[in-house]
Amino acid sequence: MNRPEILAPAGSMTALQAALDAGADAVYIGLDAFNMRARASANFTRDELPEAASRCRARGVRLYLTLNSIVFEGELAAAEDMIVFAQPFIDAFIVSDWGVISLCRRHRVPFHVSTQMSCSNSAAARFLKEQGASRVVLARECTLDEAAIIARTAGIEVETFVHGAQCVAESGRCLLSHDAYGCSANRGECHQPCRRRFLIKAIDRFTDENGEPLHDSEAEFEVTPHTVLSAKDLCSLPFIDRLVAAGIASFKIEGRARNAEYVKTVVAAYREAVDAVLRGDFTQELASRLVERTKTVFHREFATGLFFGRPGAGQYTDTEDSVSTMVKCHAGRVIDYFLKAKIAQVKIEDHPLRVGDLVQIHGPTTGVQEFTVESLRRDDETPSIAEKGTWVTFPAPRCRVGDKVFLIERRDPSKRR
């Protein structure tokens, strides 16, 4: 049985470290341009790339760079400059533009074809292999059976998305954001108007001889369910054994714009599931537990994507918000760490902390550490609560000065719209 790669997203050094700690086999990131997440908060800087590559190589983890947006004529030189700069640090580029493919071929760098190219059959996959691609990320419209056939017959590695947000448009090539706001989804600038509520309003185009409307122009109707263009999130954990059996080389988790605890939680769940499949002890009971674990972080309602059929009414979510069962509240930041005693000193800047609280500490080197506060201490005092504006110490895993501290609270998603 093949061992599929678990491919994690990372939009920051903290998220990258979280992916490594959770057991990712590979990580994909973006730089400052030419990728499908144009926001600076979801990308690495050029100065950070050597450090990211060093961390990955120290763990034997592959690092891929997304270079998969539309590239216009005047941008080819900048795209080539990025390839030349990143080449020493990157195991493969993820591309969708034929011009960028030609640049990858010119510089003899490995490349994977992005889902943006909509490779949905074995003939297309074989053709892309002939052009030098070492992997194809299949169109999200492919069913599981189709993916298995392509993986078996095309002679090239096949990658599929297994978890995360899904775009309502074919392979994500949507024009709605561009039409509404002038911000192109195909340039990584999507404002996600599809995720919002919609209102139908009558517009009068006919009048009588006096110029009066012939029918009521004030009628308005809110569409129900209101998220008629918002797809449910993909979750493949219940059938991950079938994806492994299909011979898919890489399981891609969506979420470069997601926070670090999302990355750590989801990657760890898929790591455990795949390892169980390879050992031969994967069960639906395990899958159910892992699904519940992934529900603690950002997600919409879960579905099986298009692996078992083309789109239908069941693919659309009834809420535009996350339905995560846990939420984090900023509490403060680490101002000192006593390594021998394994004690963190924390400045409380927002939410108070109490003994028994579940907390997370996030940092670029720390990644994500989650634990329960066992005790609170301030000099010779043992306060029952650490209030805003005070400092406190408590036992904690290794962390660093400047790391952020969050309180993790359980919530009832049914009470959110």
What does this structure look like?
With 417 residues, this protein is of the alpha/beta class. It folds into 3 domains: 5-166 and 231-315, Alpha-Beta Barrel (TIM Barrel), CATH 3.20.20; 170-222, no CATH class; 326-415, Beta Barrel (Elongation Factor Tu (Ef-tu), domain 3). 25% of the residues lie in helices and 23% in strands. It is built from 10 helices and 20 strands. It has helices at 13-22, 49-59, 76-86, 98-106, 122-130, 144-153, 176-181, 240-245, 260-279, 284-294, and strands at 5-9, 26-29, 62-67, 92-95, 111-113, 135-137, 157-164, 199-201, 220-222, 233-235, 250-253, 302-303, 326-338, 343-348, 353-354, 358-363, 367-372, 385-386, 391-395, 404-410. An 8-stranded parallel barrel has the order 1-2-3-4-5-6-7-11, surrounded by 7 helices. β5, α5 and β6 (135-137) form a beta-alpha-beta unit. α1 packs parallel to α2 (49-59) and α3 (76-86) packs across α4. It is globular. The two termini are 44 Å apart. The model has no long low-confidence stretch (mean pLDDT 90).
Quick tags:
8-stranded parallel β-barrel; Elongation Factor Tu (Ef-tu), domain 3; alpha/beta; 417 residues; 6-stranded antiparallel beta sheet; 3 domains; 23% strand; 10 helices; TIM Barrel
Please give a quick description of this structure.
The protein is α/β, with parallel strands linked by helices and 417 residues long. The chain is built from 10 helices and 20 strands. Strand 1, helix 1 and strand 2 form a beta-alpha-beta unit.
Q: Any chance you could write out the topology, listing elements then pairs?
A:
Layout: E1 5-9, H1 13-22, E2 26-29, H2 49-59, E3 62-67, H3 76-86, E4 92-95, H4 98-106, E5 111-113, H5 122-130, E6 135-137, H6 144-153, E7 157-164, H7 176-181, E8 199-201, E9 220-222, E10 233-235, H8 240-245, E11 250-253, H9 260-279, H10 284-294, E12 302-303, E13 326-338, E14 343-348, E15 353-354, E16 358-363, E17 367-372, E18 385-386, E19 391-395, E20 404-410
Helix pairs in contact: 1-2, 1-9, 3-4, 9-10
